Backbone:
């Protein structure tokens, strides 16, 4: 489908640069083939909402299905980049909307040679030019998902050309996507801004006896109203004891007086994700115990954020959070030995953020300026039906970091005022 917003936020040069970087990293004697994501059937003739492959979008900016990108930096014919798109069909357009034509696809992607997918088989004649490697967008766990067009293509190639060695495109793509460009950072800022405004609107509605899904509806309204047509992930709207379940997504409990409400949500804007968690008092005021636990988590989060800088590893942040939370848990008299920390804190404190919520990136290598990370410590006390998590999105800079979500309130008194007001 045609989406004018892509061209508003990303010029074709962005995608052209990404393709050049990928081709620069390819081994000699290689060709790469990327397929657009395959639509997934929900039931009957209904499909789940279409979501483009992050790698395909990163290389082309194209959002519709049925497309193929071929990269061949050593092509003897000079055909280093060819984008194949479905031929527009006026009959289908009546039902599903207009598809991109060649000129529009070239304008978005910056690929000069745009052809129809019917021509792909004729172009992929590897016998005409010596090739040793074929890069494709696959992983070893692909069997868990519905068979994609890329899987079908790979099966045919390995049967027809058993001497051609396949290589995973994702390690090279992950290295390219890990550090964000100024264009990407601006889009992520927008996703975070939409998320923050939706959260504050939701807090204005928060009160006892509402259902969790009613608050989810407030978020969805403000996401869509501000241009984010989907969630970055299934929203977590967890009150009371549900706040101690890390990935609670049922959202079907009624809020009760005296509980906390943990919300872990994120808008997806032009494929890029926000990921924000806040914990607020349902009745507008934290109890003494809730405030004490909240302050412990907030202190640890601020300590971890202060530690973010170039050269640090994500695993370093995880160790810092683990140690600091252990001391806080002792202070709260929940444990007597920091080796027991895992009873009340079970997850990593940080992950990369970008085209995926848990974006590509290594936890053991140094982070660089342009990397975007989450910082999300938590304490989960099941026996007290009290879970607290605070999460912000952080951009690594030359001298430290910038909290991209700093405008979203998180001090206890601020949250109390927003809910009680």
Residues:
């Amino acid at each position: 489908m045609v989406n004018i917003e892509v061209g508003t936020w990303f010029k074709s040069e962005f995608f052209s640069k990404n393709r050049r970087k990928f081709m620069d990293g390819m081994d000699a004697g290689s060709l790469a083939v990327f397929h657009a994501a395959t639509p997934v059937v929900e039931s009957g003739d209904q499909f789940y909402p279409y979501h483009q492959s992050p790698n395909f979008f990163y290389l082309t900016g194209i959002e519709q299905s049925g497309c193929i990108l071929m990269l061949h930096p050593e092509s003897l014919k000079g055909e280093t980049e060819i984008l194949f798109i479905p031929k527009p069909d006026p009959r289908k357009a009546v039902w599903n909307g207009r598809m991109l034509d060649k000129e529009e696809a070239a304008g978005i992607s910056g690929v000069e040679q745009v052809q129809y997918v019917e021509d792909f088989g004729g172009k992929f004649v590897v016998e005409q030019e010596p090739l040793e490697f074929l890069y494709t967008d696959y992983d070893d766990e692909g069997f868990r998902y519905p068979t994609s067009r890329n899987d079908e293509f790979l099966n045919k190639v390995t049967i027809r050309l058993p001497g051609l060695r396949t290589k995973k495109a994702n390690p090279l793509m992950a290295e390219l996507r890990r550090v964000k460009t100024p264009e990407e950072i601006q889009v992520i800022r927008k996703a975070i801004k939409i998320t923050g405004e939706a959260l504050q609107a939701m807090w204005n509605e928060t009160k006892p006896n509402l259902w969790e899904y009613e608050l989810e509806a407030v978020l969805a309204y403000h996401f869509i109203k501000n241009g984010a047509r989907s969630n970055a992930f299934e929203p977590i709207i967890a009150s009371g004891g549900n706040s101690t379940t890390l990935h609670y997504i049922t959202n079907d409990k009624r809020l009760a007086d005296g509980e906390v409400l943990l919300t872990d949500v994120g808008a997806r804007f032009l494929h890029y994700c926000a990921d924000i968690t806040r914990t607020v008092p349902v009745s507008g005021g934290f109890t003494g115990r809730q405030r004490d636990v909240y302050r412990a988590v907030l202190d640890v989060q601020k300590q971890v954020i202060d530690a973010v800088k170039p050269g640090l590893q994500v695993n370093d942040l995880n160790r810092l959070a683990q140690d600091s939370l252990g001391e806080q848990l002792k202070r709260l008299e929940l444990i007597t030995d920091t080796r027991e920390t895992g009873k009340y804190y079970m997850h990593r404190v940080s992950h990369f953020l970008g085209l995926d919520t848990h974006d590509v990136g290594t936890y053991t290598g140094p982070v660089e300026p342009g990397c975007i990370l989450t910082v999300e410590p938590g304490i989960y006390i099941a026996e007290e039906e009290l879970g607290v998590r605070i999460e912000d999105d952080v951009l690594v800079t030359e001298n430290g970091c910038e909290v991209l979500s700093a405008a979203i309130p998180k001090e206890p008194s601020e949250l109390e005022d927003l809910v009680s007001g």
About this structure: The first strand starts at residue 30 and ends at 35. DSSP finds 13 helices and 19 strands in the chain. The two ends are 43 Å apart (CA to CA).
